[in-house]
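Can't paste images in this forum, so I'm doing it all in text. The chain is below; anyone willing to post the predicted structure tokens underneath?
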Amino acid sequence: MRFSPVTFRPLFGRVLSVITAAIVAASLAGYVVAGDGVGLLRYGWLLLLISAVAFALFWLPSLHVAADAVTVRNVFSTVRVPWPAIQRIDTKYALTLYTPDGSIAVWASPAPNRYASQSAVATDTRAAARDGETAIRPGDLLSTASGAAAYVIRTHWEELRRDGHLDNPVLESGAMRRDIHWVTIAVIGALSVATVLGFTL
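Text version of the structure:
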């Protein structure tokens, strides 16, 4: 079975990250131009912390759907989930993958507010429908971040199940891998400490 990998990254979040970085850069430049070294040392760390948090929250998260696994990159960790490990897919609050080791919420694919369904077109609603369901959650609509990603994952997952590739749900030890983003944690932690110290000047 041929499957083309797909990567989902929230455009709005990336734009917000760039805007935040631009505002922070302009603010830091303002202190430099004004010759306010004390203000720069006192508040510069806070500005850098805001930029780093925005980058971690809105730029880094992504969802990569490949033929062998689904890779979820969240704020502080990346989880590689083989297809046999996926037991259920939900979009109530965000796209969430349920596995034997627990649930994995996809930060890059949040569910929209409940009013999104009011603007959904009929084709979008029909495409999102599954298993004879008549009530469609806003998070399942193809025009939403969670719905588009869920549709791709469900479609391939169901194809694999029909072809018998998911008949043996027992996974080898280590098949699911979680990598912690230590650099991100260290940078945010260091900037947090520097921010507190800066306010004591």
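The chain has a mean pLDDT of 84. The chain has two domains: 6-60+182-199, 62-180.
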